[in-house]
C-alpha cells in the first residue's frame, strides 16, 4: 500500500524520530517528500515533489530536516554541486546556520553533518554518518535511502546490501514506508550476485506495492543477469501500466532502457532502437541513451549520426559539472560518437581543470585514478587507436566498479574493452579478447550476446 497518511509532529515523535519543529504541516509535507523520494513517485495529491518541498519550507522556513531533505535531493537527485550552483551553496550554508543556532536533536545534527559532507564532495564519509544514525535509529528511512543512493554511486554493492540487512529486523508492516524495503534489499542482493534471493525479495516488494517501479526495475536486473531476456520483456510488457503510471515516471525511462537491453542481448536491434526513439525522454537521455546506443555500437549496429548528435546536444550543458566519473564517461562517449571534437576537447580540458582546482573529495580521487584511464581510453578508441585503448584501460578494469552504477550499467565498459581488443592489431590483445569473452561466458552462461562475441573472437583466431 502506498503511504499517503502523512505524519504530523506527534506521529514522528511516537515513532522515535522527533522533529524540531512545531508545524504539523511542515512535518506532513516532509513525510510526503520522503514518501515520493523513497517510492520514486510524483504524488499528484500533494502537487508533486517540487510543490511538496515548497509547501514544507513555507510552513516552517527554519525547519532543519526540511532543509536536509531538500539539499540532499538537490545534490544526489538533481546532480548539482555547490561548487558551481550558487543557490545550492546558499541553501547549504543556511542549513548549517540553522543547525548551529536552533535547538535540534543529535539525530538531526548528524543529518546536517552528512549533507554538508556530501555537498563538499565527501560521499563515502557521508555514508558513515548515515550508518551512525541507523545504529540508534534503524527506522530512519531518510538516512537509509540516502545511504543506498550513495553506495550505488560509489560502486559499493556489499555495503548497499548489508545496510538494509542490518535494519530489517527492526521494521514491520505497521511502520510507514516499510513496503519499499524488500525492493531496496533486492537490489543489493542482485548487485552482489544473489540473484535468486533478489528475485524473491523484489517479488515481495511488488506484492506489497504492485506499482513499485523500483522493485519492477530490480526484477529487470535479475532477468538481465541471468539471461532470461524473453521473460524480462514479457514481465515489463504485462506490467507496463503499473510502472509507467504518471506518478512513477521518474524511473520509467530507466526501465525502458532495460527493455531495450533485453532486445540488444537477443540481437533484436530494430526493436531496441524503436524503444530508444519512442520512450527515452530528454531529461534522462544523457545517460540512458548513451548506454543504449553504446551497447548497440558494441554489437556492430549502425545507430545513426543524427541520434548521436541529438544526445550530444543534450549533454553539452553538463560538460563542466563533473558530478561523477560515471557521468563524465557517458558524456564523453556521446561527444566522441557524435564526432564533436570541440566538445571532446572542452570536456577533457574541463576535467583537468576540475582535478587541479578542487583537489579533494571522493570524485576527485576517482578522476585522478580510474577516471583518467577511462577517459584516455575512450578518446583513444574514438580516434581509432584501439591498441592504446586496451593498453590504457585493461590494467584498471577491476577498478571500474568504483565509478558507481549497477553491474548492468557498467557492462558497457566491459563490452568496450572487448571490442577494443578485437579491433586492435596487437596479437596479444586479440588473445585477451578471447580470454575476456570466456570470462564473460562463465559469469553469464545464457547470454546470446556473449555467444555472438565468442563467434567473433574465434573467427579472429581461425584466421
From TrEMBL:
Transcription regulation is among the record's keywords: no
Keywords linked to the UniProt accession: Repeat, TPR repeat
Domain of life from the UniProt record: Eukaryota
Family of this protein: Belongs to the TTC38 family.
This protein's name: Tetratricopeptide repeat protein 38
Lineage: Eukaryota, Metazoa, Ecdysozoa, Scalidophora, Priapulida
Amino acid at each position: 500500500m502506498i503511504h499517503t497518511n502523512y505524519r504530523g509532529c506527534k506521529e514522528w515523535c511516537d515513532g522515535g524520530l522527533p522533529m524540531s519543529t512545531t508545524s504539523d504541516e511542515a512535518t506532513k509535507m516532509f513525510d510526503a517528500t520522503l514518501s515520493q523520494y523513497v517510492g520514486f513517485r510524483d504524488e499528484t495529491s500533494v502537487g508533486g515533489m517540487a510543490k511538496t518541498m515548497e509547501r514544507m519550507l513555507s510552513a516552517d522556513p527554519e525547519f532543519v530536516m526540511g532543509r536536509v531533505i531538500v539539499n540532499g535531493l538537490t545534490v544526489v537527485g538533481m546532480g548539482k554541486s555547490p561548487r558551481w550552483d550558487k543557490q545550492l551553496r546558499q541553501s547549504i550554508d543556511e542549513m548549517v546556520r540553522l543547525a548551529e543556532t536552533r535547538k535540534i536533536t543529535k539525530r538531526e545534527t548528524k543529518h546536517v553533518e552528512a549533507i554538508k559532507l556530501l555537498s563538499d564532495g565527501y560521499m563515502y564519509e557521508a555514508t558513515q554518518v548515515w550508518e551512525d544514525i541507523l545504529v540508534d535509529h534503524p527506522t530512519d528511512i531518510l538516512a537509509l535511502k540516502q545511504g543506498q543512493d550513495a553506495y550505488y554511486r560509489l560502486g559499493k554493492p556489499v555495503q548497499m546490501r548489508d545496510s538494509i540487512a542490518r535494519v530489517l529486523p527492526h521494521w514491520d508492516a505497521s511502520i510507514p514506508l516499510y513496503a519499499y524495503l524488500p525492493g531496496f534489499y533486492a537490489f543489493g542482493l542482485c548487485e552482489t550476485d544473489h540473484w535468486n534471493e533478489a528475485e524473491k525479495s523484489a517479488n515481495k516488494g511488488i506484492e506489497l506495492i504492485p506499482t513499485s517501479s523500483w522493485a519492477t526495475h530490480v526484477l529487470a536486473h535479475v532477468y538481465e543477469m541471468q539471461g532470461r531476456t524473453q521473460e524480462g520483456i514479457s514481465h515489463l510488457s504485462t506490467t507496463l501500466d503499473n510502472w509507467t503510471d504518471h506518478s512513477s515516471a521518474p524511473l520509467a525511462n530507466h526501465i525502458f532502457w532495460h527493455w531495450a537491453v533485453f532486445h540488444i542481448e537477443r540481437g533484436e536491434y530494430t526493436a531496441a532502437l524503436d524503444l530508444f526513439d519512442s520512450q527515452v525522454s530528454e531529461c534522462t537521455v544523457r545517460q540512458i541513451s548513451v548506454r543504449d546506443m553504446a551497447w548497440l555500437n558494441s554489437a556492430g549496429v549502425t545507430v545513426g549520426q543524427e541520434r548521436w548528435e541529438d544526445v550530444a546536444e543534450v549533454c553539452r550543458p553538463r560538460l563542466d559539472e563533473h558530478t561523477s566519473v560515471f557521468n563524465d564517461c557517458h558524456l564523453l562517449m556521446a561527444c566522441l560518437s557524435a564526432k564533436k571534437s570541440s566538445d571532446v576537447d572542452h570536456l577533457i580540458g574541463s576535467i583537468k581543470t576540475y582535478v587541479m582546482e578542487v583537489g579533494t573529495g571522493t570524485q576527485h580521487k576517482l578522476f585522478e585514478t580510474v577516471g583518467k584511464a577511462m577517459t584516455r581510453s575512450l578518446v583513444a578508441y574514438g580516434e581509432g587507436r584501439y591498441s592504446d585503448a586496451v593498453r590504457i584501460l585493461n590494467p584498471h578494469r577491476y577498478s571500474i566498479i568504483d565509478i558507481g552504477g549497477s553491474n548492468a550499467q557498467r557492462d558497457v565498459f566491459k563490452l568496450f574493452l572487448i571490442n577494443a581488443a578485437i579491433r586492435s592489431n596487437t596479437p596479444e590483445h586479440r588473445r585477451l579478447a578471447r580470454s575476456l569473452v570466456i570470462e564473460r561466458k562463465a559469469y553469464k552462461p545464457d547470454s546470446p550476446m556473449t555467444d555472438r562475441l565468442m563467434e567473433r573472437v574465434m573467427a579472429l583466431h581461425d584466421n
